[in-house]
Amino acid sequence: MNFKNYLSKAKYLTLGVLLSGAALAGDKVPGAKFIKEGVWRGVFTVSESQVPFNFEFKGKDPEHAVFTLINGSRRDDFHVQRLGKDSVYIKMNTYDAALVAKIQDDGKISGEYRSLVPGFRGNALPFTAEYGKSYRFVEPGKDVAPAADLSGKWEIKTYSKEAVPASIAIIKQKGNKLTGVIMTVVGDTRELEGTIQGDEFALSGFTGPSPFIVKGKVNADGTISGEQGFGIYKNLKFDATKNANVELPDPYKLTFLKEGYKKLDFSFPGIDGKQISLSDQKYKGKVVIIEVIGTWCPNCTDQTVFLSPWFNKNRQRGVEAIAIGFEQKDSLEYAKYTLGKLKQKYNINYDIAFGGLADKKLVSQKLPALNKFVAFPTTIIVDRKGDVREIYTGYTGTVTGKYHNDYEKKFNKLLDELIAEPAPETAQVIDTDTRQGN
Fold it and tell me: Which of 7, 110, 146, 196 is deepest in the core (most CB within 10 A)?
């Protein structure tokens, strides 16, 4: 099977039907192969570099199979479908990408990680995987004593012709094993896992979006130098210095309303076909949480994982939420597909609107009250009077530890305070639990 031609011709509206048929057909083929249960080691080929990743496979048939990506303490589960007699298709949940792989006669698997976004061409990474290998970079028994302890916080200087957000790394080292995260003002890399061998180090991560790798060398003065690789996107060189006091710019001060503005005004089509605007009666007298997101954005997914259960728990307290999705294709039909998958996957019970193409300049144009738009996601908190009270740029995931805990505490404190404020007498507050569809 030519996977590249197969997926480039498959449209997003018919892909599920095509794959369901292929899966059923594969189940009926005598002697059809399936991935062996257990732990695997995969390797992506990115340009001339290799990016290793680990996963576990459980289930003897497509109906029960679960594909789990392993990154340090993080686990991400995905469903598996069979394609024909000897191939599988693993959709990356709400990200419009998939692993498509063939099971070889020797039990190994090989294939591609591919973008499924209509019109995106050439966005593919080949990979191979072997069964029974749980290591990531170095085989057991072949470790070289580390020349340094990288544990701590690192101030990173990145070299690029284009502007690059400030970033810091938080690394933990135990023997040769490394775990950590790189944080920027626009979000974080999620959990990374790797190794240090002598004076060389490497960490990688693959959770569904394009794989990431950082590798480099410990210099004689204790600093480190290396390169970050963003899968199918770009590579950036960097230097870093250990600095326990380094901090990123305050995410509460990066995005704000222009002088003269107190409110936010917008009107976007909802994925349910209705127009969504802050001036709608349902939002009057309510505290409103506005999230500017994209389904292609892993930090947006992490933010949704935080907000959706929070909203379901607190929705009766006089609070509403709106997600405004900016997607990789400027198409409402496509957005209904991608954002609809997000809604289903994470049990979202607040409104979801489509803002347009995922472009920061476009977001700034469509939300002109903002001084600028810096990052997906961005959280905008509106009080009962309709005034913007806080804007948070980016998202700090649970892997960031104290940073995430601080964010959660401040979020809850602010929402408690705003919910406790009286609604304007002119506002007619609607009970959200009596509305149809919620």
Answer: 196
| Mean pLDDT computed over every residue of the chain | 90
CB neighbours of residue 216 within 10 Å: 20
Closest CA to 211 of 52, 47, 48, 399: 52
Q: Where in the chain is the domain with CATH 2.40.128.120?
A: 152-242
Which residues, in sequence order, are CB contacts of 30 under 8 Å at separation 6+?
none
Residues 228, 232, 233: CA angle, nearest 5 degrees? 60
What is the rounded CA–CA span in Å between residue 394 and residue 412?
17
Query: Are 238 and 164 a contacting pair, CB within 8 Å?
Result: no
**Is the pTM for the entire model greater than 0.85?**
yes
**What mean pLDDT comes out for the span 154-163?**
88
Fold of the domain built from segment(s) 152-242? Lipocalin (2.40.128)
Cα–chain center distance at 278: 27
Kind and range of the H or E run holding 419: helix 402-420
Domain 267-434 classification at class level: alpha beta
CATH code, 3-131: 2.40.128
In the chain, the percentage of residues whose pLDDT exceeds 70 is 89
